[in-house]
Amino acid sequence: MKPFAIVAALALAGPALAEQAVVAPPEAGSVSRADGLAAWDRVYEVVSHPRCANCHVGPDNIPMWSGPSYGTARKHGMNINAGESRMGAEYVPCAACHVQRAQEDLADNGPNEPPQVALAWQLAPVEFQWFGKTSAEICAQMADPERTGGRDWVALAEHLAEDAHHGGFVAWGWNPGGGREPAPYDLQRHIDDVLAWGAAGTPCAD
Description:
Elements: E1 7-11, E2 18-22, H1 33-47, H2 50-53, E3 64-67, E4 71-75, H3 135-142, H4 153-165, H5 169-173, H6 187-199
Helix pairs in contact: 1-6, 4-6
Keywords: Heme, Iron, Metal-binding, Signal
Organism: Pseudooceanicola nanhaiensis
Protein name: Cytochrome c domain-containing protein
């Protein structure tokens, strides 16, 4: 695979805070298994973090409230259920509170305000359940294109950049506002780690 780069302009908290995410895959096989596993450990730190895992839930379609500001993890308040649509079409639409905003209008949410992004708020597909899953389970999931919407490791990295480019949930994870704890590292490091893990052959710990 020849290296290439995709540059995405990211509006993280409005036009004043723009960054660039570069997707530049290493040659397949150019990263050692040990380095690939170390990269995976950092990927898992991100995907298991509340900013990511709280909306990557299972077939009960109920988002979670967890993280340092919540204490004990619990189901989303107000009896919210996103339904099989994963966006609340059957009950109360997620967008009733998580209002979609233009990127240039995104502002720092207060601690008691529902987060908002520039895409329609929804849960990740149930095949991408992360909440409560182990590192080994998520690693096997992300290494299997049948469970990632047909995406290989390069396409997963491109998905991260593309979502952030549109002011979506990925960029929000590192700039959630309201005193919420952001995901660890940063978007570029996360993309680089996904690519390093992929170039190592998507290894999972034994």
